[in-house]
Amino acid sequence: MVRFASLVGCLSLVASCVLPAAAIGTEYVVVEQLPGVPEGWTKGEPAIRSRLMRFKLALNQEKTAEFEKRVVDLSTPGHQDYGRHMSREVVSDFLRPFDQGTEKVVAWLEGEHVPAESINVHGNWVEFEVDIAHAESILRTHFYRFYQEKVKDGEPRASVIRTLAYSVPRDIYPYVYMIQPTTRFGALASQVTVQPIIISAEDVDGDCAANVTPDCLRELYQIDDTDIQPDRRNILGISGYLDQYARYGDFEEFLHRFAPDRADANFTAVSINGGRNLQNDTRGSGEASLDIQYAFSLAYRALGVYYSTAGRGPFVPQVGQDETTDAENEPYLDQLHYLLGLPDDELPAVLSTSYGENEQSVPEKYAYTVCNLFAQLGARGVSPTFPANCPFVTAVGGTYGIKPEKGISFSGGGFSQYFSRPAYQEASVSGYLDKIGNTFEGLFNAGGRAIPDVAAQAINYIILDHGSYAKTGGTRLVFPLFVLILPLLLTVTMASGGDIRSLVSELQNALNRHQFEVVSDLLSRAKRALLLQNALIPTPSTSPELVSAAREILEVGALASIRQTDAPTFTRYYQQLQPFYDLERDSTGAGKVDFKTSQRSKVTGLYLLLLLSMGDSTSFHTVLEGLVEEASLKGKSVEDDPFIKYPVELERNLMEGSYDKVWRETNSERVPSEEFALFSSVLVGTIRSEIADCSEKAYPSLPISNAKNLLFLESEGAVIEFAQQRGWVLRDGRIYFPVEPEAAARSEKDILVASGTIIENAVGYARELETIV
Description:
alpha+beta, Rossmann fold, Serine Threonine Protein Phosphatase 5, Tetratricopeptide repeat, five-stranded parallel sheet, four-stranded antiparallel sheet, 23 helices, disordered N terminus, signal, virulence, proteasome, hydrolase
């Protein structure tokens, strides 16, 4: 059967809720409605009306389809965007709500007297907290307590407060996708199918057909000589729910017995929404033990994190109420929101979650919402392993036997009713469908997402729980094995073009946001990766993809240094880029290197402007002559390129002494980019300082109005500010310079003529301009 991995419950058709009458004059529209009480649940008494509940409202998103296509593209090997993961900010921008959606929903809630302090907005979610009586009025529904019909021996009977339908005003409906907890009945359930059987310490040894241990798995899947290289980005996350605690004592003893060469493996427990990791709890923790012991003994050296989420439905406690068996909220929604709120460099590279439920027990909108959240994690570089029917995760199934392995009976599988088949499954699934023909026609959705994607051993695993050895089985056993494979792949990828391409995307995003500390950190990582691939300098053996990525990384470094007015660093990047630009000049020897994204003209133009600002006329003309020769061979003029034309025009004006033209040029629309504008303003500032120095030597004073034109300042206020910075005295509309008095007084006409002479003669183009940066 298809499993929506991470919850449990089934739908059947029974009664529905009775909705209260809508307010006069307001038309309400049903957002979600179940056909009846889900299978496995019984409707009980009305919910206590004074009880508080916290609701999560998902807003409709503007670019969902475009976003999901982008996620598929960046996950598809061979696509030009493969590996170009998005940042948190880019994902948020993609998935922003429709215009005014958030404002209208918040205004609606406030109009329904929801306290403003209980309303929280983050991204395309709005959370609010009200008592049940208030919620029934807002959503035009009734809440009841529903009881689970089947429970394990000795366990309390679980219950939830839910409804079968809810509505919102028609004018709000276009903005609201889903509100929970309302119609979502499922509860998280482990994927362990075979209950653990206690065995003695002597019985844990034997062949791999009878007892599966870490060494057995390494040998079977030929990964016995492979280890993960330490990397702070290679974080392996394990989801913990249902009060399952990862016990350090059992973990250490398990390593000592089955992986002594990895005895220093470790993990960190992270609490989400009050989740705990108790070490002395007497309840069984076999599921957490399995996940931790196999994941971190196999994925040795990966940074292990156990995300413990309060998993039995946290709610706002009320005096006198028993909260031990309630499950009002969705613990894994809490986990998802926590992870999506993390900075990009703190996200796990792999997230293993060994829970599941039948797809038909999950409301369709809920399924799509959760799948979209996992797509957001995938877009940022996380490889999740549930929910299985979501096309943006890797669904895992179980096998048994060795040479050959066969699908095991309790492994979930099939075709999703909700999600269509993604393109990456087309070849494999089409072959399977051709093979079975019309055998099961009408019994499944042949166009649905197929499950699982991968499968591995799922029976006879040895675990250690509370000091006792046990043997167990289930599809959750496959998760820690498969998550070993992903970090190993990531270890290879992190030194390859795929990960470097992802770093290029991160670098460009950080540069565009002017996050220069992030840029610096990413540049260090990227250059180390290039060094490992011997790609910092292009050679005939360097792949075209790496050549392009390396050039883009160095170009980001050059532009970042310009934006920080760091001339020495920019010069170093310019020099490092020359071997790549030499390839571009001689494109016949560049093979399949992609030059479409090259910023050679921009970087070269900026270098010319830097040389101009520093007064290095010799180097300026040396670079320019090379560009002129290259352009002439192509039958073009060097000034056809706006990035080159700009510094050439400035240099021409400077040599002619036409500083008014320099001023106009630096303030015109012809400034090619932000970086050029920065250097242009610094250049003009340096010229202004030179004119000021000469003015101090030539005159005792000048009218403020003349100084404005002389110094290329936009207003008399700017003149006054500049004068104060120079220590000039302002009195009676004039500027008095700190120089010895001169006897002759000049007329206004004389001053203007002299001003022109100063501009023409006082600015030494190559003199003392190295102080620009």
